[in-house]
Amino acid sequence: MRARWLILWWVGVAAAVWSGIYDILITRGTKEYFMREAMARAGDGPAASLDAIMRQTSHDAAITASAWAVFVAASGWATIWLAKRRSF
């Protein structure tokens, strides 16, 4: 029963990690758009496309956040597995 609660806890931690990393990377994409837009208005670059920047940013953010969440969940699973194995 304790292992089930630990699994649920690790799934929650992995979900929080996914959400946090995704949010950070989306924020970076937004800042990149604002920087490109400011440069375009100043005449230092081409016009920025919000759609193109955010499409690429959200794709990359989802992959990166998912990779980290899988790593955290796998680490939690390994911790539970090792703890159960050593308790015998």
Question: Which radius of gyration do the C-alpha atoms yield?
Answer: 20 Å
- SS element count, helices: 2
Provide the helix percentage: over 70%
- Biggest sheet descriptor: none
- Beta fraction of the residues? under 5%
**Mean pLDDT rating:** 94
**How many extended strands?**
0
Order of helices and strands: HH
Low-confidence stretches: none
The shape is rod-shaped
- Assign the structural class, choosing from mainly alpha, mainly beta, alpha/beta, alpha+beta, or little secondary structure: mainly alpha
Number of domains: 1
**Distance between the ends:** 16 Å
Write the layout of secondary structure elements.
Blueprint (H helix, E strand, L loop, with lengths): L1 H40 L8 H37 L2
Task: Give your account of this protein's structure.
The chain has 88 residues and is mainly alpha-helical. It has one domain (2-86). Helix content is 88%, strand content 0%. It contains two helices and no strands. It has helices spanning 2-41, 50-86.
